[in-house]
């Protein structure tokens, strides 16, 4: 059932919860917290000040902050000013920041004093970038407005509080695991449709939940679940500045958290740590959800068995305002599958000619529905390629079983083609992850004189364990067709991943020694 009441403008949601649960904590971090009535007041003032600073409807404002309550407040304030949020990773490099600010044509940036000087420098070459707002009292030589004042003093203008749900409200830069990042335009309607069709009806997210969120807020997964959906249902959330295994374990053990969203690597490390300190349950935790990368069946099963809590995998993409499929807590489940399509979404698996493939066959996953992006920012050609007659071409390879359970088998561009035979790196990774001494692994394709490409395997051993390459390869030979067995095995301290848990394959490709 679609929870249509959750699809409403941010200002209306804020008013609704300020009236129904004024003194309830909405968001907190290690430094401060904000109740629903304070959140409504503070974001209203900030939105008015943004208008006073000349931010017009449809203008873009960057949020470049660490995960924090200020991040969330800024996002709602920008929405209430009728402007567009452009989240930028706080850890982004100077060229990455410059590219995003210029590409999205940002008129204002909300950041810390620490980053203020860098933005001040970039401002000189960006005439449209007029305002800098800093959230703390640190030293910043650039001319900046104080977030503290803007959120506490009355503005001249009232918040615009737009009622339209279909205007672009966010421009999110995709992970960019290959090539230059593209700005994905998203709307409040598309984002909250996911809350209404997935998080609330499937995972039961409600005002009774207390969420522990370790996800990077600038990424679509967190913006959708940890920011907008938490507001939509009126829940309470603790925002971690960044994921730390020991801190997550401590908080889940001691706190009253009911709901924990993560990416597969986080669950992997959490399970290791729980085993090491003999933690077998978290008192109030009712559900974990995972998205962002393939959740290996073994990890899913072992996590649930050890900690006695359901871990539901779902498949999401920035271009579809996140979720496309989800596993349900009830009914049958297929481990290793990312679940079934959200009710209300049309999903097909097609071959290179665009014909639907039979169940069990691999093909490209394409999606049509209310959460598909209107397009990329200023990239009409890329938009045309990605959106064909309203169907978003995900570039992901998938298989469906007879009952519609989907499994992601790799990405079109991640495919390794060895002597004409296709190999999905994820398939090899799933097998290698089952090998006792392996903590983590990744597979990349490397050029080969005769075969075109061959798979190279990077492995991280478990602490205190040695990996016997011959035994590992024998294990692979047992589980995989000969052509899929890695040609090269290399030890590595850590697999490079994006904030949302995806393997950064090009970084590994550069490190292969043949
Ligand atoms: P992003 O736009 O950064 O969220 O990346 C989206 C991509 O992450 C998808 O196209 C998939 O390749 C991958 N992905 C997300 N969720 C899953 C999942 N549950 N299983 C496998 N791959 C996933």
Provide a descriptive summary of the structure in words.
With 514 residues, this protein is an alpha/beta fold. It folds into 3 domains: 4-184, Rossmann fold, CATH 3.40.50; 243-411, 3-Layer(aba) Sandwich (Rossmann fold), CATH 3.40.50.12780; 416-509, ANL, C-terminal domain (GMP Synthetase, Chain A, domain 3, 2-Layer Sandwich). It contains 15 helices and 27 strands. Strands 4-3-5-6-7 form a 5-stranded parallel sheet, sandwiched between helices. Helix 8 links the parallel strand 10 and strand 11 (236-239). Helix 7 crosses helix 8 (220-233) and helix 10 (264-276) crosses helix 11 (297-307). It is globular and about 70 Å long. The model has no long low-confidence stretch (mean pLDDT 94). Bound molecules: adenosine monophosphate. Residues 174-175, 220, 291-295, 313-318, 338, 394, 396, 408, 411, 500, 502 line the site of adenosine monophosphate (AMP).
């Amino acid at each position: 059932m679609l929870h249509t009441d959750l699809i409403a403008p941010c200002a209306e949601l804020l008013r609704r919860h300020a009236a129904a649960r004024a003194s309830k904590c909405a968001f907190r971090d290690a430094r401060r917290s904000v109740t629903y009535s304070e959140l409504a007041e503070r974001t209203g003032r900030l939105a008015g000040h943004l208008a006073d600073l000349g931010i017009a409807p449809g203008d873009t404002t960057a949020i470049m902050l660490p995960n924090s309550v200020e991040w969330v407040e800024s996002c709602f304030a920008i929405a209430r000013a009728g402007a567009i949020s452009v989240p930028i990773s706080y850890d982004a490099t100077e060229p990455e920041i410059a590219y995003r600010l210029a590409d999205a044509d940002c008129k204002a940036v909300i950041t810390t004093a620490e980053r203020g000087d860098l933005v001040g420098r970039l401002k000189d070459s960006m005439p449209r970038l007029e305002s800098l707002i800093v959230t703390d009292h640190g030293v910043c030589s650039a001319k900046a407005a104080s977030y503290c004042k803007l959120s506490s003093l009355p503005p001249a203008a009232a918040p615009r509080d737009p009622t339209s749900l279909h205007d672009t409200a966010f421009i999110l830069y995709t992970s960019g695991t290959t090539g230059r990042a593209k700005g994905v335009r998203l709307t409040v309607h598309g984002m909250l449709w996911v809350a209404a069709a997935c998080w609330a009806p499937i995972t039961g997210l409600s005002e009774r939940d207390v969420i522990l969120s370790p996800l990077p807020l600038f990424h679509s997964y967190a913006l959708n679940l940890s920011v907008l959906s938490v507001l939509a249902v009126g829940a309470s959330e603790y925002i971690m500045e960044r994921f730390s295994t020991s801190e997550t374990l401590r908080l889940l053990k001691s706190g009253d958290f009911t709901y924990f969203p993560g990416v597969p690597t986080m669950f992997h490390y959490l399970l290791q740590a729980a085993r090491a300190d003999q933690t077998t349950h978290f008192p109030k935790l009712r559900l974990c959800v995972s998205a962002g990368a393939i959740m290996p069946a073994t990890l899913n099963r072992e996590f649930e068995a050890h900690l006695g809590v359901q871990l539901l995998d779902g498949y999401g993409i920035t271009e579809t305002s996140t979720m496309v499929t989800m596993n349900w807590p009830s009914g049958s489940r297929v481990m290793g599958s990312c679940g079934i399509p959200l009710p209300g979404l049309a999903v097909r698996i097609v071959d290179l000619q665009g014909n639907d493939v039979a169940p069990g066959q691999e093909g490209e996953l394409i999606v049509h529905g209310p959460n598909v992006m209107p397009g990329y920012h200023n990239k009409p050609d890329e938009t045309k390629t990605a959106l064909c007659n309203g169907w978003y071409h995900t570039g992901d390879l998938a298989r469906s079983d007879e009952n519609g359970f989907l499994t992601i088998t790799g990405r079109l561009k991640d495919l390794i083609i060895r002597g004409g035979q296709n190999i999905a790196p994820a398939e090899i990774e799933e097998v290698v992850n089952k090998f006792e001494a392996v903590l983590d692994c990744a597979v990349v394709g490397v050029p080969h004189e005769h075969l075109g490409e061959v798979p190279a395997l990077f492995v991280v051993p478990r602490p205190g364990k040695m990996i016997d390459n011959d035994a590992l390869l024998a294990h692979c030979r047992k589980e995989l067709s000969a052509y899929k067995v890695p040609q090269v095995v290399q030890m590595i301290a850590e697999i490079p991943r994006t904030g949302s848990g995806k393997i950064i394959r090009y970084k590994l490709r550069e490190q292969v020694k043949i």
